[in-house]
Amino acid sequence: MAEQRERTAPAGGYARLVAELPATVPFIAPEALERMSGVPIRLRLGANESPFGSSPKAVAAMREAASGTAWYGDPESRDLRLVLANRHGVPFEAISVGSGIDELLGLIARVFLNPGDAVVTSLGGYPTFNYHVAGYGGTLHFVPYTDAWQNDLDGLAEAAHRTSAKLVYLANPDNPTGTVFGAAQLAAFIDALPEQTTLVLDEAYVEFAAGLQTLPMSHCMNRVIRLRTFSKAYGLAGARIGYAVTHPDTVAAFDKVRNHFGVNRVAQAGALAALEDTVFLADVRRQVAAGQAQLTEVAHRLGYRPVPSAASFLFIPVGSADRAARTAEALLQRGVFIRVPGVAPLDEGLRVTIGTREQLSQFAEIWAQVDRELRG
Ligand SMILES: *Cc1c(COP(=O)(O)O)cnc(C)c1O
Fold first, then answer.
1. Is the CB of 203 under 6 A from ligand 1?
2. What is the value of pTM for the model shown?
3. Which of residues 227, 245, 276 is at a domain's end?
4. Which of 240, 231, 183 lies closest to 204 in space, CA to CA?
5. Does residue 357 share a domain with residue 265?
6. Domain limits for position 152
7. For residue 47, which atom of ligand 1 is closest to its CA?
8. Which of 224, 254, 276 is the last residue of a domain?
9. How many structural domains compose the chain?
10. Is 55 in the pocket of ligand 1 (CB under 6 A)?
11. Is the previous residue joined to 176 through a cis bond, with omega within 30 degrees of 0?
């Protein structure tokens, strides 16, 4: 076998950066977990997809667009960018559309980093960002969360100064904890960063943060990249579409190296229609808020204190990494997919996506059973 491998691997080898990277994926997909466990997943509450589906208007628009799949999509996503520019009160040139935030994170790493450049993020923060930074040779510096499961803004700013960071990453609302900062705190954080540092502000869950005062999109565009997606509240995760709002010069830099035809026309049509369906979005938000209350009560009944969440999931510390791992494993054996973050001390918690009322009732029943067994 080893011999065969030797004979088939390209004799010239791979790029040094890639050859030296450990084999890793940021997230093991539920499909892969299903294949490994052999148990079909019946409750898919681990990837923060929307169990409320997508707007029927978006689905209709995508169905219609599908008949035009023989043609490439508009590589400039002009129609969508015009609508977004109008909505956010920024110039059209300040928006870049990509196949989800995940793709844009890779683009940011590529555009900003020389190998060895310093990047600061929270210890246990969104792993896909770290994955891309490593893939472009950046050096990650991690700042632990606070005891209240919040991103440590003072610590992040301090680390940015100490390391002369090129990029600082912050998810707001945060994944995996669901904690959130308001506009004033963010503005102060941006002010506290070194001048040469760009803030990557990942707002994948911002639509769920009821009553949140967000920074205007035009705030410090030369130092901040805002990231939004259609994957979460809009329920278009499988379509792969999201966007960045930032300084037009940065958008122009993206244009030098981005995958120009990487966003498909079906997704473009779906995103446009989804933006218009404000009734659907409001309904999703209402159901997520109700689900937060439902799941919080379930956790309380089992004696746990979930972290108040501004996102579409709940982070529930269960006391130890061992308990969290064994809970997730026992749930998976019963066909329930949730996530436990990979990094301590966040690995003491369960991250559960807010499902429908019915899904959460089923989850409550199975979790209570598992919890009882683990307590022995
Ligand atoms: C889900 C998620 C993403 C991925 O968004 P896509 O647009 O689907 O790539 C990015 N950032 C955070 C914090 C997320 O939770």
1. no
2. 0.96
3. 276
4. 231
5. no
6. 56-276
7. 1
8. 276
9. 2
10. no
11. yes
Each residue's pLDDT, cut to its tens digit, for the chain (376 residues) gives 455 556 788 988 999 999 999 998 888 898 998 998 899 999 999 999 999 999 999 999 999 999 999 999 999 999 999 999 999 999 999 999 999 999 999 999 999 999 999 999 999 999 999 999 999 999 999 999 999 999 999 999 999 999 999 999 999 999 999 999 999 999 999 999 999 999 999 999 999 998 898 999 999 999 999 999 999 999 999 999 999 999 999 999 999 999 999 999 999 999 999 999 999 999 999 999 999 999 999 999 999 999 999 999 999 999 999 999 999 999 999 999 999 999 999 999 999 999 999 999 999 999 999 999 999 8
Tell how strand 118-122 and strand 167-171 pair up.
Answer: parallel
Is residue 251 located within the same domain as residue 321? Answer: no
Give the CA-trace dihedral at 150, 152, 153, 158, to 10 degrees: -170
Q: How far apart are CA 346 and CA 337, in angstroms?
A: 18
CATH code for the domain in which residue 230 is found: 3.40.640.10
Answer for the pair 135, 167: CB distance below 8 angstroms, yes or no: no
9 inside domain:
no
Is the shortest distance between the CB of 100 and ligand 1 below 6 Å? yes
Pair 305, 167 in one domain:
no
Instruction: For residues 270 and 310, state if they share a domain.
Output: no
Q: How far is the CA of 104 from the centre of ligand 1 (A)?
A: 10
Residue 253 belongs to some domain of the structure: yes
